[in-house]
Amino acid sequence: MGKVVMYSSVSADGFIADENDQPGPLFDWLTSGDVPLDDSGALKVSQQSYDYTRQYWDQIGVTIVGRHVFDLTDGWDGKPPSGIDHVVVVTHRPAPEGWNPEAPFHFVDGVKAAVTKAQELAGDRVVEVAAGDVGGQVLAAGLVDEVRMDVVPAVFGSGKRCFGSVNAQHLLENPDVVQGDRVLHLRYQVRR
Fold first, then answer.
1. What whole-number distance in Å separates Cα of residue 85 and Cα of residue 169?
2. Helices marked H in the chain — which ranges?
3. How far is residue 24's CA from residue 187's CA, in Å, rounded to a whole number?
4. Domains along the chain?
5. pLDDT tens sequence across 31-90
């Protein structure tokens, strides 16, 4: 089985979006460089960010998101983002009415079921868990192997917390650190 990685771009004070679900400058680093990150040409980063991010993105087989993110993105119109094979949506509700049943999206109830389904689909590839409430729940359940954060030099003051409403202490190992342009890439192994 592939490892489970909680991931997000995050403000210096630990927020993944403002109170209105807007990421503000959190993704500016994805368009501030001169090295194309994907085939679209829309994403251009520094060489350091490319070396760090591209290698990680190529390992992802499945992404787990909550229903809130799914609804905010309109389910990416049925096509998983960034070339990912499948998306597992944690929700208590069924797929939206009229949803294409052939789309590689899987709707499950609960984070443990989501991780089980995602690992089944991903095989030995990485299962990525979006930060926020669902990511925090997966961490609290002891199912996260690694935490990756792209920390940007911005302070939100309030908003959607990176680890959601997790209120218990979780220890991480020392970080691997890569300095990009307007971003600090951090990778922590979760201490067991």
1. 33
2. 47-57, 67-72, 111-122, 133-140
3. 23
4. 4-189 (3.40.430.10)
5. 999 999 988 889 999 999 999 999 999 999 999 999 999 999 999 999 998 889 999 999
